[in-house]
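Severity: low
Component: inverse-folding endpoint
Summary: output formatting inconsistent between runs
Steps to reproduce: submit the following structure tokens with default settings.
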């Protein structure tokens, strides 16, 4: 089974949450807080620990 990348996982989470996507588009999101909020979901999907910094970097991309 192929591992899902952190970046791909973060993208999927954001796409399925329109309110977060809109907040990012409007520039009113706190990326550190968002990374902490989705950390457990990213960890569950990726299957390994994902640092807040790596999640935050994926959000910026």
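Observed output (run 2 of 3):
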């Amino acid at each position: 089974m192929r591992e899902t990348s952190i970046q791909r996982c973060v993208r999927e989470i954001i796409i399925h949450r329109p309110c977060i996507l809109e907040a990012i588009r409007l520039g009113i999101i706190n990326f550190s807080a968002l990374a902490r909020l989705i950390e457990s979901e990213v960890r569950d999907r990726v299957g390994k620990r994902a640092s807040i910094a790596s999640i935050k970097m994926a959000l910026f991309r």
